[in-house]
Amino acid sequence: MGDTDPKANKRAERQVVVLFAISVLATIGFLIAYFALPPGETADSMLRSNLALGLGLALSLLGIGLAAVHWAKALMNDHEKSEDRHQLRSSDKDREAAVEVLKEGAADSAIGRRGVLQGAMISALALFPLAIVVPIVGNAGGEWNVGAFRHTFWRKGRKLMTDPSNRPIKAADVTIGSVFHVIPEGINESENPLNEKAKAVVLLVRLDPADLKEAEDRKGWSYDGIVAYSKICTHVGCPVALYEQQTHHLLCPCHQSTFDVADGAKVVFGPAKRPLPQLPITVDDEGYLIAQSDFTEPIGPSYWERLK
Question: Where in this chain does the record put each Rieske domain (predicted)?
Answer without folding.
Answer: 199-290
